[in-house]
Write a structure and sequence with these properties.
With 306 residues, the chain is α/β, with parallel strands linked by helices. It has 12 helices and 10 strands. The mean pLDDT is 96.
Length: 306
């Protein structure tokens, strides 16, 4: 059976995001490596730090990668032999780690580097907003009028837009007047827009130095930009860097998962946003997140369902 592995982006970090993985000795090297990047054990950090601190780029991107890698490692003997793996925003970096294209320490170092580059390149007055209820053709007219950008395509009428704050607010007002639901996101970086072009160029250099390799046999790794399978590491690395300043087509990633024959979808949290978006393509409870399970035994049992 082929399983779609979906690696979360930022936004769902919380104090209990590692609770499912307590007492798993195989994860200690991962948490030790993460401690080097964060300055303390991530399990303590999420419980003791001010909640707002978990949503900085530095902490958030590293934490999301740790959670995905921990979840995939903790599946142990029930890890799928055949999987199509995709990641949302920084989750795409975690997806490379799960697919075996990057080793664990390299994935965490790159998460730290990615966050630092994005923070340095981002305008001081930038951000993101969700827009739901408009077709892309109509939204494109609005974002162009206000010098903003479509950052993420979640569905036919569900998008994330990015840009400077004043322009974003104006864009949201016009979209709302056209019947959309809009919401500013708690993000200070206009990810996946041309405003991050400098960060993308520098991150490509960091990726080259990490010497990524082809995914493990049986794993299909997807590009977040277009949902296409990565067959060439150099081209895939170009796309992984470019997604920092290019629109992500998450809807295409989900369609590619189904086209590849995936029968189950498992989101490696934190959060449940990706599993909820995948649910229409994987009905009858066949799209779940690690967040929904209280025990690893329960998660492993679900993954082995016929």
């Amino acid at each position: 059976m082929t399983v779609a592995i979906l690696c979360s982006g930022q936004g769902g970090q919380h104090s209990g995001m590692f609770d499912l993985f307590s007492g798993v000795p195989e994860l200690e090297p991962l948490f030790a490596a993460a401690s080097d990047q964060l300055g303390q054990d991530p399990r303590r950090l999420v419980q003791e730090a001010d909640p707002a601190a978990l949503f900085t780029d530095h902490a958030g991107q590293i934490l999301c990668c740790i959670q995905a890698l921990a979840a995939f490692t903790a599946l142990d003997t029930v890890r799928p032999r055949h999987a199509v793996i995709a990641g949302y925003s920084v989750g795409e970096l975690a997806a490379w780690g799960c697919a075996g294209s990057l080793d664990m320490p390299a994935t965490l170092r790159l998460a730290q580097r990615r966050a630092a580059l994005m923070d340095a390149a981002a305008p001081k007055d930038g951000g993101l907003a969700a827009v739901v209820g408009l077709r892309r053709s109509r939204l494109e007219v609005i974002v162009q009028r206000h010098a903003t950008y479509v950052a993420i395509v979640n569905g036919n009428d569900s998008f994330v837009i990015g840009g400077h704050n004043d322009a974003l607010d104006a864009c949201c007002r016009e979209a709302a007047a056209s019947g959309a639901h809009t919401r500013r996101l708690p993000v200070a970086v206009p990810s996946h827009t041309p405003l991050l072009a400098d960060a993308a160029r520098a991150f490509r250099i960091a990726l080259r130095e990490a010497e990524p390799r082809a995914p493990r046999t049986g794993f299909r790794l997807l590009s977040g930009i277009d949902g296409e399978a990565i067959h060439d590491v150099e081209t895939g690395s170009d796309k992984l860097a470019a997604q920092m300043c290019t629109t992500i087509d998450w809807a295409a990633c989900l369609e590619s998962c189904r086209a590849a024959g995936a029968e189950l979808a498992l989101e490696l949290g934190p959060g449940t946003a990706l599993s909820r978006m995948a649910a229409p393509l994987f009905p009858e409870g066949r799209s779940r997140s690690t967040e929904e399970f209280r025990t690893l035994a329960g998660l492993r049992a679900w993954l082995q369902r016929p």
